[in-house]
Write a structure and sequence with these properties.
Elements: E1 2-6, H1 21-38, E2 42-46, H2 57-73, E3 78-82, H3 89-92, H4 96-99, E4 104-107, E5 119-122, E6 126-130, H5 143-154, E7 161-166, E8 168-169, E9 184-185, E10 188-191, E11 202-206, E12 212-213, E13 221-223, E14 239-244, E15 253-258, E16 265-268, H6 276-285, E17 293-300, H7 308-316, E18 322-330, E19 333-335, E20 338-340, H8 343-348, H9 351-362, H10 368-387
Parallel strand pairs: 1-2, 2-3, 3-4, 6-7, 7-11, 8-10, 11-13, 16-17, 17-18
Antiparallel strand pairs: 1-14, 5-6, 9-10, 12-13, 14-15, 19-20
Helix pairs in contact: 1-2, 6-7
Length: 388
């Protein structure tokens, strides 16, 4: 079975009030081309199809037109589209019946009674266990394993089994997500991989924007990542994953196909920080004919000039680039061996790093035993928060 695995399209997303329809349409065009070339048996779209639960009519039309074209590129292909935490699960299923005429299966909500609603057979090729996003409190204990056990009963031909989920798996690389921790990313608490059950050949994940394998010992658990960056901190390759599985029990073969963005997100300088004057010079010298979104990384001693954003916007006038924001970082100042942080920098620090700084300030040795104790307390706090 050959699969195209993608997720987190975030259709309708705007960047600093700039409309991104052109980029999203370009992404959909590339999806069509990849399907035409690769001819997958299954197209998996694993959640966060839209950026908001209430997408505009134009954005919904963009998705519908895109899915029709993707279907036409390979009419024999099965398309499975699950809802993510940014989507409305109920709205996701409104056109569930007519979509099936185009072999599109829209799975929006968790079905606890009729498990077959989550199981899609691809005749002669394999089985898809499609699980949309659901708050972990609403997922019955052992739900994933129940689904996999039911598929095992049906899978008399020993065909590949693929399961989807839109969640945070503990141990993933959440680079690019704001205010994320190992316990919670984007409002979704981390699950241990063992909670996802056993019996799948490939676990197709959505939610984390950085494409990656999650360590399972079998090289078969993967986030496809988002095909378009949603923030400037997503400075990594954006792609879709092509997955091939010979039969049940075999290790999947996976390759990435990069998605090109006609309006890339560019940070100036590309590495480190610049003074305000240096940043303005970099922006003024940015080529006039390159479409891009621009963020300036600026080191400040006190505050930026009041007119800073207006100055930057003026420098971008006449260029094809779009100035978005200034990411100001206060210059590191040490007073009696104490590092002074801005509020933004403090919020970005991990709790253990703040504890380490405090211990250093008090002259306490923050040794391995103390780090272990601190992490245990953090685990307890996280557990209590989940149970509240």
């Amino acid at each position: 079975m050959k699969i195209l695995h993608t997720s987190d399209w975030h259709l309708g997303h705007t960047l600093y009030n700039y409309d991104r329809t052109e980029e999203q349409q370009a992404m959909l065009e590339q999806m069509v081309s990849i399907v035409e070339e690769q001819k997958p048996d299954v197209f998996l779209l694993c959640g966060d199809v839209y950026h908001t639960p209430q997408p505009s009519a134009a954005v919904q039309t963009m998705l519908s037109d895109g899915l029709v074209r993707i279907h036409e590129a390979n009419p024999q292909m099965t398309i499975v589209m699950t809802a993510g935490n940014h989507d409305s699960g109920t709205k996701h299923e409104i056109f569930q019946t007519p979509w099936k005429a185009l072999k599109v299966y829209a799975i929006g909500q968790l079905e606890r009674e009729d498990l077959d609603e989550h199981i899609i057979e691809v005749p002669g090729k394999g089985w898809i266990v499609a699980v949309p996003y659901a708050n972990e409190r609403n997922i019955p204990e052992g739900f994933f394993q129940q689904l996999l056990d039911k598929v095992a009963e049906k899978n008399t031909e020993n065909l590949p089994v693929v399961m989807t989920a839109h969640t945070t798996v503990k141990g993933c690389d959440f680079t690019g997500h704001d205010q994320a921790t190992e316990y919670n990313v984007g409002g979704i608490d981390s699950l241990e991989l063992e909670e996802m059950g056993e019996g799948y050949d490939y676990l197709a994940l959505g939610h984390i924007h950085h494409g990656q394998f999650v360590h399972s010992g079998k090289h078969n658990v993967r986030y496809s990542g988002t095909p378009l960056p949603v923030s400037f901190d997503e400075n990594f390759t954006h792609s879709v994953s092509i997955v091939e599985i010979g039969q049940h029990g075999e290790t999947p073969a996976v390759k990435e196909i990069e998605i090109q963005n006609p309006h890339p997100l560019v940070t100036l300088p590309t590495d480190g920080l610049a003074t305000w004057e240096e940043a303005k010079e970099l922006l003024s010298k940015f080529p006039d004919d390159i479409p891009a979104y621009i963020r300036l990384n600026v080191e400040i001693e006190n505050f930026l000039p009041v007119e800073a954003n207006a100055e930057a916007a003026c420098l971008a006038e006449g260029k094809q680039c779009r100035f978005c924001c200034i990411n100001a970082k206060r210059k590191v100042v040490r007073q009696d061996n104490v590092q002074v942080l801005t509020v933004q920098e403090f919020q970005e620090e991990k709790p253990i790093e703040i504890a380490r700084r405090y211990a250093e300030y008090e002259g306490i040795s923050f040794d391995e035993e103390m780090q272990t104790m601190f992490n245990e307390v953090m685990d307890m706090v996280a557990e209590e928060s989940r149970n509240d």
